[in-house]
Amino acid sequence: MIPLLLGAYAAAVALAPTSSIKIALSAPVLLAPAAFWTIFSERRWIAIFFVCALLLPPLPFAIGDTGPHPALAVAALGLGAGLVRLREWEFRPTGLGVAAGALFIVLLCSVVLAALYSGLAIAAGSLARVLLFGISVYMFFYVAYGPGKYSDIDVRRATRLLFVVACGSALFACVDFYFQFPAPAGYGPQFVWLDAGVFRRAQGVFYEASTLGNFCAFFLVMICVALFRRGGWLPCSRKMLIAGGVLFSSALIFSYSRASLLNLLAAVVAFAWMQRVRMRRAVLVVAASAGSAVLIVYAAFPAFAHSYWLRLSATVEYFYSSPEGVLSGRVAAWRTLWDFLVTHPWHWLFGIGYKTLPYTDYVGRPVIADNMYLSLLVETGVIGLVVFAVFNAAILRAARRAAASSDPRREFFGRWIFCFWIGQLFQMMSGDLLTYWRVLPVYFWVLAIAVRDEDPVSRSI
Question: Fewest Cβ atoms nearer than 10 Å: which of 86, 186, 265, 300?
Answer without folding.
Answer: 86
